[in-house]
Amino acid sequence: MASALPHSVTRPLIVVSVGTDHHRFDRLVRWTEHYATQHPELRFVVQRGTSNTPRALESHELIPHDELRGLFAEASVVICHGGPSTVMDARSVGRKPIVVPRDPELDEHVDGHQMRFARHLSDHRMAVVVWSEAEFFTALDEAIDNPASMTIPIEAKTVPVGVANFGRVLDNMLDIETPIDRVAAPPLTVHRGFKS
Predict the structure, then answer these.
(1) CA 58, CA 1: separation in Å to the nearest integer?
(2) What pTM value is reported for the model?
(3) CA-CA distances (angstroms) from residue 19 to 30, 114, 145, 173?
(4) What share of the chain is helix, strand, coil (3-state, %, to 5)?
(5) What are the tens digits of pLDDT across the range 84-107?
(6) What is the DSSP string of 165-179?
(7) E-state strands within 72-127
(8) Which domains does the chain have, with CATH numbers?
(9) How far apart are CA 14 and CA 10, in angstroms?
(10) pLDDT tens across 156-171, in order?
(11) Strand (E) positions, 27-171?
(12) Are the C-beta atoms of residues 53 and 75 closer than 8 Å to each other?
């Protein structure tokens, strides 16, 4: 698809990931194609897995994990299947994804866990979950019109207090000191040696 925009203009990037399950997810690829034909001002990169290759869109069967996370971080909008790992990868780089869960009744997965997870995401406002092509178009329009609505703060990774405390107890027992960064609570005071 040729863009009507000059090459010097940066086109907003939309990244779509269907995951790596052996089931095809042609529905999400097809919805993306339909939307893209109406929006040549946008750039799409599709990780398509075993799904059909979209016409006139950049697509790859697989994208290495670190590269995909990098694309998520660069993207204006991330669209993905309802796999927990992919959703959390998007969120970990500050993107609230548009989620289209795979439907086992359409032979897109072996069970309905993505649909259950998507409902949880929607209930807790952790993602924008869509169930139809019309909802997909609406969600994408809104995301492009208001990109700030699709960004979330990147939380500093903290070590849970219990893990940090356990690590300190082990350090004390082994008489070593292991640095633990960004602990979620004030450090535990550990006395060397055991008390009787």
Answers:
(1) 10
(2) 0.76
(3) 15, 12, 26, 44
(4) 40, 15, 50
(5) 999 999 999 999 999 999 999 998
(6) HHHHHHHHHHT----
(7) 77-80, 98-99
(8) 13-150 (3.40.50.2000), 157-196 (no CATH)
(9) 12
(10) 555 556 666 666 776 6
(11) 43-47, 58-60, 77-80, 98-99, 128-129
(12) no
